Amino acid sequence: MTLNGKTALVTGASSGIGAATARKLAENGAKVGLAARRIDRLTGIQQQIRAAGGDAIAIAMDVTDAASVQAGTEKLVAAYGTIDIAFNNAGLMPASDIETLKVSEWQRMVDVNVKGVLNTTASVLPYMIKQRSGHIINTSSIAGRKVFPGRAVYCATKHAITALSEGLRLELSRKHNIRVTCIQPGAVESELFEHVSDAHYREQMEKLKGEMTFLKAEDIADTIVFALRAPPHVDLAELFVMPTQQAW
Ligand SMILES: NC(=O)c1ccc[n+]([C@@H]2O[C@H](COP(=O)([O-])OP(=O)(O)OC[C@H]3O[C@@H](n4cnc5c(N)ncnc54)[C@H](OP(=O)(O)O)[C@@H]3O)[C@@H](O)[C@H]2O)c1
Questions:
Q1: Which residue positions in the chain have pLDDT lower than 50?
Q2: Distance, CA of 111 to CA of 104 (rounded, Å)
Q3: Cα(115) to centroid of ligand 1, in Å?
Q4: What pLDDT score does 222 carry?
Q5: Which protein residues touch ligand 1 with a CB less than 6 Å away?
Q6: Residue range 48-97, pLDDT digits in tens
């Protein structure tokens, strides 16, 4: 299926997996809404996409704020007329042991990783239902399939996204012709680890980078484009994408 002329909303488009996917979607002819909080970053990516002949707009959006998400989605629809693809990708992983009680980081993860996805899903669904087509892609993780020490809350949020994705697929696929894909990457090079405040886990992740070759954000972007380009009768419901050297 071609992506030419399709409209895509990408959250977390200011860095990592979101930025790489936004670029790849634009290369494939999609019109892309680049959504995140760091508008300067988004503007830079928008300029690069346009300079390469693609089409994109920068949208300041905080996914934890339902009004901000709604306004951003409306801005995208005002620019391009519709919305065909929603990549719910914004997320964070401040790893720490539960006993350290970093409650505000737990709440932040729930707000961004779970409530953020619910906010964007609610904002795009009416358009997709009305046009009887759409593709929602949610970024879960290997942490949405397994649980790791130091990441109990992160794993809980990603398990929630895995479950939500399957629930969306069950309710939306046959009834509204909306495809749902849950992508579950292993370790990917990005800015994700930079927000870890816990010294032990920060060190652990830095060490890990020297021990194995991480996926590139572009590897995930390629996988997403593959899922989007599948024929309309094919829904790649789950994609578990791992670095070859990640044996855990
Ligand atoms: N890297 C990995 O190893 C890995 C593995 C599996 C899954 N994942 C998942 O992949 C997704 C993307 O992460 P990444 O690895 O690409 O990390 P990243 O480079 O840190 O990107 C995270 C993105 O989320 C955005 N974001 C954070 N809070 C937000 C908010 N309140 N509103 C809107 N946007 C917000 C950030 O933009 P602003 O700061 O500009 O708002 C940024 O664009 C996350 O869901 C992550 O859990 C990552």
A1: none
A2: 10
A3: 14
A4: 98
A5: 11-12, 14-18, 36-38, 41, 61-64, 89-93, 112, 139, 141, 185, 187-188, 190-192
A6: 999 999 999 999 999 999 999 999 999 999 999 999 999 999 999 999 99
For the annotated catalytic residues, the residue numbers are 154
Q: Give the Å distance between the CA of 108 and the centre of ligand 1.
A: 12
DSSP letter for each residue of the chain: ---TT-EEEEETTTSHHHHHHHHHHHHTT-EEEEEES-HHHHHHHHHHHHHTT-EEEEEE--TT-HHHHHHHHHHHHHHHS---EEEE---------GGG--HHHHHHHIIIIIIHHHHHHHHHHHHHHHHT-EEEEEE--GGGTS--TT-HHHHHHHHHHHHHHHHHHHHHHHHH-EEEEEEEE--B-SSGGGG---HHHHHHHHHHHHHS-PBPHHHHHHHHHHHHTS-TT----EEEE--TT---
Tokens of 66: 């339902």
Structure tokens at 239: 């994609």
